[in-house]
Amino acid sequence: MAEVGADVVEMTHIAKRFDELVAIHDASLSIRAGEIHALVGENGAGKTTLMNVLYGLLPRDEGDIRLRGQSVSFRGPAEAIAAGIGMVPQHFKLAPSFTVAENIILGAEPMKSLRRIDRIRAESEAAELGHRFGLDLDPKFCYDNLSTLLEHTPPEKTLWIDMEQSPYVDVTLELFRRARKSHANIGVCLQAYLFRTEKDLDSLIPMGAAIRLVKGAYNEPAEIAYPVKKDVDENFLHLAQRLLSPEARRARVRAVLATHDRALIAKIIEWTASQGVPKDKVEFQMLYGIQRAEQIRLAQAGYPSGVLVAYGTFWYPWFMRRLAERPANVLFLARHFFSN
Q1: Residue-number span of the structural domain to which 120 is assigned
Q2: Is residue 119 located within the same domain as residue 200?
Q3: Which of 15, 167, 235, 258 sits a CA distance of 20 to 30 A from 2?
Q4: What is the model's pLDDT at position 305?
């Protein structure tokens, strides 16, 4: 154990880039034995990225890391843990191709004979852990509820699955794909500010999915999401073009573009007109009470226009949590409330 006051961790001139996005530039951090530090900064400042570099989750592009005076370069979290560095991630770490139950039991799989995984026991243990520790997603319970809703949804109507923070994307898409095998009238929401959404479309477009595209309302780390509005807007336009492309229309994709951004809407309309996309294939959705004049204008111009209304017993906690997650959401609501 190092003496109190001795240098334990030194990170000097660290840089990390994601393609053209500079997440960290020339960052240095020194931690001495006996000290407790807090990294404070705006969303996108690189706090989580810096810790992911230290923990071995991300390789650094530049700089040096020293642990007790020795230069180190961890190839993964296992090496960092062995060296005495632990980390509790800000977001869940999931294996994308695994089910929820498989992620929960990963590393402690209940086995049957011939070294086969006991899947019935695995689902039972996953559900028990969820009940005991308050996990908010029970795969079977959630799917059963979704199935009940679909059974009561008329075939000509679409049941939409909303999207939460990034840790829930994989499990939500898993539920969507499973439910769509028996019910074609189900849709799912994707978020334009996540880097991964482009690849998600690669598998969803060929199946002719109904997709509701939004910008994204949560405070996500810079290594998985665009932190700058300009970049989010550009990616939204790019993804909208993919959803309305000849390939997507041939696959009978239903593209729903959920945005209140009039400048972005204008760009989408200009592009679709230049490409000869029929107006009835360009569908917009907005929150109830926001940009009402724009909703009416779009509907009168011949574009399908939907309104999102939050309802049910927990509409208010859901609404307040969305506002609290990202302060910009409060400013957005206030601006449109008073302008209307």
Answers
A1: 95-135
A2: no
A3: 15
A4: 94
Domain shared by 130 and 19, yes or no? no
Q: Which of 7, 61, 64, 162 is catalytic?
A: 162
**Has 321 been annotated as catalytic?**
no
Structure token digits, residue 324: 């609290």
The percentage of the chain sitting over the pLDDT mark of 90, rounded to a whole number, equals 51
Query: Which is nearest to 171 in space by CA: 122, 138, 212?
Result: 138
263 falls in which pLDDT band (50, 70, 90)?
Answer: very high
Q: Is 115 a catalytic residue?
A: no
User: Within a domain: residue 166?
Assistant: yes
In a domain, 157, yes or no: yes
Query: Is residue 156 domain-shared with residue 239, that is, in the same domain?
Result: yes
Where would I find the H helices in the chain? 47-55, 77-82, 100-105, 119-133, 139-151, 169-180, 197-204, 229-243, 246-250, 262-275, 292-300, 315-325, 327-339
Distance CA 208, CA 253 (A): 4
Q: Do 112 and 40 fall within a single domain?
A: no
**Amino acid letter at 136?**
D
Which pTM value belongs to this model?
A: 0.61
Q: Which of 138, 212, 233, 242 is catalytic?
A: 212
Residue 183 per-residue DSSP state: -
Residue 311: φ, ψ to 5°: -145, 180
* 134 pLDDT higher than 50: no
